[in-house]
Amino acid sequence: xxxxxxxxxxxxxxxxxxxxxxxxxxxxxxxxxxxxxxxxxxxxxxxxxxxxxxxxxxxxxxxxxxxxxxxxxxxxxxxxxxxxxxxxxxxxxxxxxxxxxxxxxxxxxxxxxxxxxxxxxxxxxxxxxxxxxxxxxxxxxxxxxxxxxxxxxxxxxxxxxxxxxxxxxxxxxxxxxxxxxxxxxxxxxxxxxxx
Length: 195
Fold this sequence. Notes:
This protein has 195 residues and is mostly helical.
């Protein structure tokens, strides 16, 4: 298990331990720093989403190299969108729990630029002050765990990306780990205060 997996499990374990001791969900609100069922349910749903997307990322990392191009595309699109879903879940968790954070830090990882160029807006990528352009993905690069591709209709004339997917995931996991630690410490402190 990765550090991210361990942190998610530790946070969920604290919440579960408290849940076992009570029949009333309202007793759990304090643990995650909320005061209503809507926010509490959003927090729990976000943790489920983090667990599910971690499964997707771990499966991507342990994939076999002898897959068809179709399977590689599924893995590629899946892992990039799983990371985007994690980013969105972190925004929910941090905001609802009232934790201070810098949104730019959660948005600045290169994996989101890659996701937007290749897995979300490949046919109609548009950036700040940029005209619409498209990106073509090199399917052969996927076989070696790389993301490589280009845009021949970019306003600069040509734009390209060439990077290793594992490096992108590692950069994101570092940011995710940092923010999960904020959440873990807040949940742990709230639990100690409640007992």
